[in-house]
């Protein structure tokens, strides 16, 4: 004796958020039922395990049927666009009648990802090879392989769609995948990292969270890409502004010209004196730190060095400061005066490039300066 | 040549990839009507083709317009090989043939293929130009309106109810033709779909002709069914009630005309002056056996004895003035009804004052052997079969002293060559007011005497000459007339009925094994089993009703399904406590061997359990009938023993039963004897019914007594389960499995819909089938509707507080007053019935508003939105030539209206098409009926596993059917389907071959509705006629 067939179809598609999450997390139906039983939904609703199993299977089926629409939210989007095109409304994608707030929830959760997972693949090439290694990632993070695959496929799908698109990256993602603002920004960071292949996996970078990187990516996208400076439609946000990178080489004068370096140092030291406990260390390390930062700038024209951008920041600046026990207030103070003093230097001409460079460097370092 | 059909193919979208090489499609469209076909150009290499074709014009007879669907086929052009079909769209153009329905079909319709399902959408425009036909001998019936709704549609008024119309057409089933051996499954499915479309059209046309003959202009409660008789053919049959309807003038402010229509429930009315309850009574079952086994020429046929479910009692003398008046009434209405061959009305709800008395349920069944239909043009055998059954129903009704049968329906169950035909309805006496022209004074006088809340319960038959041993008491409301102790009906609860507490779904389920047999032998076995099956269902219903402390059943529907080795019986009804009827006694268990102590212990344990359950149920359903002063009026009434008994075996006589002390005191009790395993099983079945979880109510009728403050959140759903049985089960085992199957299904529904609590599952419609041996299929379609808990509680309090009772009784009086007025108004008065009711409604709601200011803000905001919307519509320049009705409605176009109303998401809403099996939408007013939706789909797969197994396959198919219904409604300009039903869901599988096939037939009325909150904001007279509607979050 067995239930051979069991379906429930509502005119409005019924979806349980909790079960959706379990499905997204890659639980099997039986595991999901176990979790739900532990969650106490049975007592709440006077249900039996049988009922729960039937409901879970039904929901899983619904999600599977919806999944292909979720891969192209623009298709689902037609439903959302009804509002603006009354003539063409009502009949679009009628298979599921889902209220708009539910649709938004479905999309948002489908595209949500685990920070621990994204840290593993951030900056890696979104290729088949990486996908093959996902079972390692799964064992390492404790996230089910199914969920890992979904997240990876999401990254790849978004990457493929926006890679060749013109216009602002975040906006493109938001429009094509109907993601909420924050999530769209995160995806922009992922796409940006994957495109520039930033190294994030080195041991020294392990202490950084995805949100740290996402913040830095936002800084880079907003300031260092071609889209950042002018709004010509045919430029792209995913690549750094080559011209700017070229100009960065001019900053080398700050460390190659001995006079300039000394002058810069004395200006900074004068400004800092008495304002911090680590003044001596700052004074002692000035030349080292300045060389570090300017060298990073000068090397960015090489793609390979772009990849090492974050590791360089940590090695050349953050680690020395940390070993001297600077506080982040100290770092802030130092970088502020370091940036500003350069403008007073008589022979230094590259003010615009310097500002554009140091603005990003400063906010990135401040964000990354924690334990 | 009185009609011109015009069609334009605009565009397609989301088409499937037909050319693997280019990942694109070269699509073109064939438009076919009758024998004429047009083609569009090929739109090369696109999945979103823009054909923008010319207008294809078909000049056709209106007869064809009614019969034929417009057939649109989308194909992929192939230079070298045959063109591949992508899919089809059938468009029923019937709604365009009626001036009051839709004027154009325009929108995106899913392209459907029987093998692949929905494959993209196509945008079409369809119009019809009809010329006046003055031919008196015409064969068409354009202009007759059809409604699935089994009550007078919301924006119409019944001028006249003409009576029963029926028709059937037969044909060969293409699936069983010889050609089916050589053609593809797709071709076969399409031939079937097309044939059924054609037959439905023809049937509707023929029924329309009958209506015109009778002088009517509409069919209400149109119920079309088809019987897949397999080898012997395909029968499509329909019944309905012919009416003359008149549109309620829309110049009246909409809210003022019918504010209560959104929630056709009424206030709970306690009747403090109820009659004494000292009268005991007995309930027995008479089973007048009408075994008229006649042999029809073409085959075997057995008419099965049927039961009359009526309220039964005995004793009592004639009521005061009821006798003569009733006789008079009967005389009058008889003259009106006797002209009719069958005084049957498939309606389940009636205009006020139409239904006078209800006798009880009448039903008839007959077992037939199917034979090939030789001449499809003369479906005489099938006609004769139904005629026979209808005659039987008619005579049953007569035996109950009734001239009419309401809530009438017909159904079949087929297994191999055996077919059970069933018909059932409720014997009733109707007012002649809607059936004859000219007022009748005497009748009105009679109506004045009858109070509306209990009048229908009063017995229609003569007390001195009752057709069965029965016991009656005086009505507990008016104390003037006799009422039975229990009342079974197939109709909806009349809105004016006095009900105590709430109702609930009551089901009797039965499964019986039978021997495998062939032909006549099989038919004999089945007809021998049927009476027992029906009897036991009745017993179960009665027991469960008592267990819930209720005394009446509404919406009773008994379905019997035959399989090769078993018979399934499922009776569903909504139990209520009618204030007018006496309080039901408890259930008493009697053992046969009182000497055994442990046995007695066992019995008393069970008795305790039952008593506890009754007490719990009374609390749950809020059944606290007012305690009344004992007072004996009228002639001496015999006081029989305070119990009634259930005859398990006819040999027992009641005197042998040992008397147990009942906790129910003087109330009469129902005695259950545990003298055999059957009874144990009965008791078991009684007690295993799962109580509805907190916050849920359920019923199979349109409305739930005691709940009126529905929110706008509704959720229609269909759930299907198929259960595989193990071989060799006993009847008891089967019974338990079947019962559990239904219970578990209900439990699952409650769990699924838990987010809607507090809510009521309305119109729970179960259908059972035995698709093959060892399989049981149960399908449920219903709607879950949320209601406002707080107001509910308030109402509960109200009934408790004396001052408020007063207010309510005042209202009562007003209602009565209005109805009386109503009764005196000659029927052609356009302001008659709805107006009267509406005044009461607004009266009530005005009170509600006076304490609730919160709704004010809501109204303001909807005002603003209204303005915005208007601006929007103007800007869009949506111009539409509208009929007078549309102009009068506050918003010019259905589609633009649905743009608004969802506040939660970026200020406007997704255009949602609501579906409901009910005839109304809570919190909204239906402003236009666009026509009937009657669709038939077949889906087949040869890759069952790949489509997610049987569940995945059916899930997708049902979702697709919903989608297509919604799309067609939207194309007609509607935003909802009411009276929706899935009349057929035939599922067949062959997992070994990785195949499955499913047929689904759905129907309903496409409508345009407007939220009452929107109406309010546009209505000028907001103060005078506001209804408090919950315009809160739109949950669906």
From TrEMBL, chain A:
Q: Which InterPro entries match?
A: FIBP (IPR008614)
* GO annotation, biological process: platelet aggregation
Entry GO CC: nucleus
Q: Which GO terms describe its molecular function?
A: fibroblast growth factor binding
Top-level lineage group: Eukaryota
Q: Name one Pfam family in it.
A: FIBP
Per its record, how is this protein called by name?
Acidic fibroblast growth factor intracellular-binding protein B-like
